[in-house]
Structure formats: structure tokens, C-alpha cells
Amino acid sequence: MPKPAYKRITLKISGEALMGNQTYGINPEVLSSVASDIAETAKLGVEVAVVVGGGNIWRGASEQAGGMDRASADYVGMLATVMNAVSLQSAIEKAGVTTRVQTAIPISQIAEPYIRRRAIRHLEKGRVVIFGAGTGNPFFTTDTAAALRAIEIGAEALLMAKNVDGVYDKDPKRHKDAKRYATVSFMDALQRDLKVMDGTAFALCRDNAMRIVVFELACRGNIQRAVCGEPVGTIVKDNVETRFVT
How far apart are CA 64 and CA 60, in angstroms? Predict the structure, then answer.
């Protein structure tokens, strides 16, 4: 059995990642695959918290142009994250791991309210905790929610599961000569404007020395590999030499 490099992690999954090749909603096969990876990671003895986005159902910023004010649109987006969280909960429990959903907006019929100490206690008991509804405030992304929750629960790393396999020096979809970083410092990421995550989330991680691991979700088993310290994706942290994958 592989040995985890971290005891407690926060995993950020975008809502778009749950779509698979669809243009909207949740792809059942993708959901099952992601849930299985999370369950297998938890079975390694790692305490796993998850923050899930809602972009597969609703994006507040884009709906603003349609006439809805940004705050209202963001609240609708928070509800979309809860839908994803409950769906993910069901899939993880089918994979044999107990879960709890906690939301920043009280929805007592389907989830617990977010309480930091309760979340930590669930993690200590081996339950996967899924955080929904972002921070509970408009104008903040789920990236920011992930950074905030990771810091609050004392996670050792924030794992950013994306549709790309790490952080590049330029857009790899537009530039064939784009190079992927193996490691990059917070300072270099800022100076090179690498857009690891949104600015507020990045500042939270930098100011609290929260290690970030950016990797590709679609590759089955990557969550476990990242948790075990294998060289997948890009690591962003303090006091590290910035270097490319060779």
C-alpha cells in the first residue's frame, strides 16, 4: 500500500470537471470515477475534505450579463454547488466511505451547517467532509472557499484538481512550446502572473504558507498519486526552487 505524504488535505473540484464531455450537468460516469478516487484516497488513512464548484450548473458572473444582479446570481451559484456536493456524497458512500456535507448557507434538511470544529471531528473519524455553498458570500469564488476551508481545518495541502495537468508558463492549448512547472514559489507565480487560482484564494494560501498541488483530475488515480507525493502536476509553495518538468 502506498504511503501518503499528507495526513489531511483539502481537494478542490470544479463543477465543470463533473460534466465530462457534456455541456451541462453531471456525467454519471465521471461522478462515479471521481468518487471512487476520493474513496480510495480516504482508505489510505488520509483525512479528506472536498470543496466542489457549481460551474456545470450555473455561473454567477456570466449570468450577470443576462440582467440578474451579481449578488443574486452568486447565491444561485452557491445552491448549484450544494447540488454537486449532495451528488458527490451519494457516489462516495456507494464506494464505501462515510461522508458528511456541510454548507455555508443553512439547508438543514440535506446538510449540516458549516462548523469548523465539527468538520475536524468528522475528519478525525475517517469521514470525507464535503463543503458546499462556497463561503456563503457573493463575489467570492469556490477557489477562495477551498483556500479558506483548507486553512481553517489545518490541511497540509490544497489539491486543485483541474482539466490541465499542472501550471504552465503559457497557455498549453495555444502554444505548443509551453513548459510545465514541476515546482514554483509563490513569489515567482506572482511575478510571472501564472494564474494558479483567483487572486484572493492565492493570497490566502501565500499568507498562510498553504502548499498548493495543481494536477489533472481526468487521469484516474491522480488524487492518490498527489496525496502520496508522486510527481504529478505542479507544486506551489514557499521557499522552493522554481523548475520545469524535465
Answer: 6
